[in-house]
Amino acid sequence: WRNSQWRNAQWRNKAGAWVQRGLDQRLRLAVTGLSRSGKTAFITSLVNQLEHAGLDARLPHWPPAAEGRLLGIQRVPSRHHHVPAFGYEAALGQLSATPPCWPEPTRGISEITLAIRYRPKNRLKRKLQDTATLYLEIVDYPGEWLLDLPLLGMSYAQWSEQQRQLLQTPALAELATPWLQAGALLAADGPAEDGKLAPLAAAYTQWLHDIKRECGAYLVQPGRFILPGEYRDAPMLQFVPWVWDPVPGGLNDSHHYGMMEARFEHYKKHLVQGFYKDFFAGFDRQIVLVDCLTPLNRGPDSFADLRRALNAILQSFEYGKSGWWQRLFAPRIDKLLFAATKADHLTPDQHGRLATLLGTLVRGGHRHARLSGIDIHTLALAAIRATSSGQVSHQGETIPALQGRRLDKLDAVALYPGEVPESLPEEAFWRQQGFDFTEFAPPEWQPEQPLPHLRLDQALAFLLGDKLS
Ligand code: GDP
Q1: Nearest-CA neighbor of 292 among 202, 370, 371, 382?
Q2: Integer Cα distance of 115 and 132 in angstroms
Q3: Domain 24-141+282-387+443-468 has CATH 3.40.50
Q4: Which atom of ligand 1 is the closest one to the Cα of 289?
Q5: Residue extents of the structural domains in the chain
Q6: Between the N and C ends of the chain, which has fewer C-beta atoms within 10 Å?
Q7: Order of strands across the sheet that contains 388-394
């Protein structure tokens, strides 16, 4: 009798564990965006909100929190031992310093995993088990890496021609003098020497950084040149487009041209395809962060380039349209959120316009992605709210205003930054430059409190809503 009781108990345990495994889920949430779009701030605040969820975090639009079904959220070790850990503690340390600083931006890929224990709402799930766990794996990676996808469809000669066209823009050509002059000294059929190619590639990389900084360029390729991750100084990052004299036939990798062509192909195969195969293929959900405000401040060329860059990024989600996916792997992202970041730089009456503007920017891509069965949403948010909004009177009129501390001078200011265009800005907007965007210092914040934010709960509701039902 004792034996059969023991076997029954064992069976019950096994069945319980099996049901539990069925209820427990994993979700790989990828966070991307071009440099300084706000990825580090977003992930830091997201983890922080989740750690405070069900306690003192303000997440009224995230049903599991609003309904009191969250039982506990914990950071747990990541399953992927080869991926660096996201520097959450370091980021909180910087935000709680005196004076508070913004955390170090994203430079490569990193990951952080949270175990979210909750009480299911779904009746069937509840009958099986009182509690369930969602393992949320948040992966941070530079959006610049997605800009490389179009390279897969190009030969070295085609890419070089594209870059030659780019140099027709005077502002870009002006900054290119150092690498153009250095390359002009090389013969395409000269013997390949690392000692010559490495400094040439360094000058070219510097140009990419310069056009980003000076001209507000966004569509910079190859993306890994800007953010090489662990491949800094690797020979496969040491090539430049051949924009000089016509190239004689019959060259191989013992010549300058042939060596750069071989490296370009290697870059495509190992870095571009490798990223899609090893990482992108495993993502379940994706959020793309977009800072629309900086290019609005910089002017029409920068804004147009952001649009081009977003179009290049969107190609990664047009599974149905591109043949790449069939050849490479089957992606599984089923929800895609575009978030306009730093909404705390605007008065609340402008938040809707900011979301609409971002929607307009990505609309072309929306169409294709929807065809492929991806659920898409657009939102304006602030991961870490650095301002408070109120009203001031100006020449007898009451107008909305923001209060915060300026990032450069740390002085307290109250200002009205202006109106965001609701659709793609036209001539008149640029002529009047009605928008003046000031960078703010992070808020004064006590580490035991949740970070202040705007609409992170709405992002959570869209990205995780169905998983915690
Ligand atoms: P990353 O390169 O995408 O990781 O960008 P970061 O997260 O490092 O953000 C870049 C900069 O944007 C920060 O240093 C802040 O100055 C600013 N920033 C990011 N998120 C916010 C936000 O929610 N509010 C405000 N006011 N500024 C932000």
Answers
A1: 382
A2: 10
A3: yes
A4: 3
A5: 24-141+282-387+443-468, 146-277
A6: N
A7: 388-394, 397-405, 412-415
pLDDT (tens digit, 9 = 90+) per residue, 353-408?
999 999 999 875 455 555 567 889 999 999 999 999 988 877 888 888 999 999 99
Q: Which of 287, 285, 289 is nearest to 382 (CA)?
A: 289
CA dist 22 to 25, 78, 129, 131, 328, Å? Answer: 7, 20, 10, 12, 30
Ligand 1 proximal residues by C-beta, below 6 Å: 33, 35-41, 102, 105-106, 341-342, 344-345, 382-384, 386, 439-440
Residue 415 has what pLDDT?
87
Q: Residue 111 and residue 108: Cα distance in Å, rounded? A: 10
Q: How far apart are the first and last CA of the chain?
A: 41
Mean pLDDT of 4-25: 60
Tokens of 155: 């030969």
Say if strands 70-76 and 110-118 run parallel, antiparallel, or are unpaired: antiparallel
Structure tokens at 79: 């399953």
> Which of 31, 32, 36, 291 to mutate to test ligand 1, by most ligand atoms within 8 A of the CB atom?
36
The rounded Å distance from CA 41 to ligand 1 centre is 5
Give the integer Cα–Cα distance in Å for 135 and 117: 9
Q: Report the alpha-carbon distance of residue 39 to residue 102 in Å, rounded.
A: 12
Q: Best substitution site from 47, 384, 453 to test ligand 1's pocket, by max atoms within 8 Å of Cβ?
A: 384
Identify the helix (H) or strand (E) that includes residue 250: none
Where do we find the tokens 């036209």?
426
Separation between Cα atoms, residue 190 and residue 180, nearest integer Å: 17
**Strand-strand pairing, 375-380 and 132-140:** unpaired
Name the residue at shortest CA distance from atom 6 of ligand 1.
38
ipTM: 0.99
Fill in the amino acid letter for 299. G
Q: Identify the residue whose C-alpha is closest to ligand 1 atom 14.
A: 102
Would you state the torsion angle of the CA atoms of residues 177, 178, 179, 184, taken in this order, to the nearest 10 degrees?
80
Task: Pick the residue whose CA is nearest to atom 20 on ligand 1.
Answer: 38
* Distance from C-alpha of 13 to C-alpha of 333, rounded to nearest angstrom: 35
Residue count of the chain, please give it: 469
